[in-house]
Amino acid sequence: MPSEPANAAPARIPRHLAVIMDGNGRWAERRRRPRIIGHRAGARAVNVCIDFCIERGVQALTLFAFSSENWGRPEDEVGGLMKLFLNALEREVEELDRRGVRVRFIGERERFSDKIRERMAAAERQTERNGALHLTIAASYGGRWDIAQAARSLAQDVAAGRLAPQDIDERLLGARVCLADLPPPDLFIRTGGDTRISNFLLWQLAYTELWFTEALWPELDAAMLQRALDEYAGRERRFGLTGAQIAAQTNETVE
Ligand code: FPP
């Protein structure tokens, strides 16, 4: 997949969808159940989202499963989430592979247990040649961490004499942040009612269309995702240009 759009014409279907899956805890609390039950229901909604993307031809899906800050949650919740991730890695990868999904993980992997890290690497190896959907799970991920690791990698090249500081520009830094081999997200969805980005893909979301819903993540269904796609399809993406310039580009593409 090209890393940048060939032109700024609006695409009907987002090539890359990025999602903050919020509201699992509240979903459980409303049912007077432990929060981990909400996360389990959230794992089912992940499958709804993956199925929808494959059916609609969305090529890449990036899910925020666990933020750098989530390590600070109560110990039993973090432990429950780790068990859930391990279970998902043990049970779901075969089916994802069968469906042609390529699975990758972004984030500070060193913070996970050896067992989870091994499973992550095995899932990536097993599915690396698949192309029906590029699924990225952001786990122990933070947008600031991502930009910092990209800057560190450039600094290492400078220190080794491979790169001159004056050559560092947006293109070079952009090539070192996570997901650099994918087009930037076209559409961002956040469930759970909050209207913020919460340290998700800070660099990558620069021109992404944002869509928020009050619905809690475990309530996700195809109709809700379709509403987001319909709204996205009706938006004009200008990437800093004027509406007239975009219209001219669109006509050139059509001719
Ligand atoms: C946010 O809801 C959700 C999380 C921190 C965890 C996301 C995990 C899953 C959807 C389950 C498994 C995922 C995979 C990829 C197998 P919250 O707990 O912050 O909800 P709240 O705002 O209602 O408290």
Task: Describe what you observe in this structure.
It is globular, with a radius of gyration of 19 Å. Helix 2 (35-56) runs parallel beside helix 3. It has a single domain, classed as Undecaprenyl pyrophosphate synthetase. It has a six-stranded parallel β-sheet with strand order 3-4-2-1-5-6, with helices on both faces. With 255 residues, it is an alpha/beta fold. It is built from nine helices and six strands. The model is unreliable at 2-11 (pLDDT under 50). The longest helix is centred in the first third of the chain and has 22 residues, at 35-56. The chain binds farnesyl diphosphate. Farnesyl diphosphate binds at residues 21-26, 39, 42-43, 46, 63, 65-66, 70, 84-85, 88, 137, 192, 217.
Short description:
The chain has 9 helices and 6 strands.
Features:
alpha/beta; Undecaprenyl pyrophosphate synthetase; six-stranded parallel sheet; 9 helices; globular; disordered N terminus; binds farnesyl diphosphate
Strand and helix map with partners:
Blueprint: E1 16-20, H1 24-30, H2 35-56, E2 60-67, H3 75-91, H4 93-98, E3 101-106, H5 114-127, E4 133-141, H6 143-159, H7 170-174, E5 187-190, E6 209-212, H8 222-233, H9 243-254
Parallel strand pairs: 1-2, 1-5, 2-4, 3-4, 5-6
The structure holds farnesyl diphosphate.
Farnesyl diphosphate binds next to helix 1, helix 2, strand 2 and helix 3.
Cofactor: Mg(2+)
Family: Belongs to the UPP synthase family.
Subunit structure: Homodimer.
- SS elements, strand count: 6
Oligomeric status: single chain
Shape: globular
* Radius of gyration of CA atoms, rounded to a whole number: 19 Å
Q: State the domain count.
A: 1
CATH architecture level-2 label? 3-Layer(aba) Sandwich
The largest pleated sheet is described as: 6 strands, parallel
Q: Beta fraction of the residues?
A: 5-15%
Average per-residue pLDDT, rounded, comes to 94
Strands ordered across the widest β-sheet: 3-4-2-1-5-6
Poorly predicted ranges (pLDDT <50, ≥5 residues)? 2-11
CATH C-level label:
Alpha Beta
Helix count?
9
Q: Name the helix and strand elements from N-terminus to C-terminus, one letter apiece.
A: EHHEHHEHEHHEEHH
Distance between the termini: 23 Å
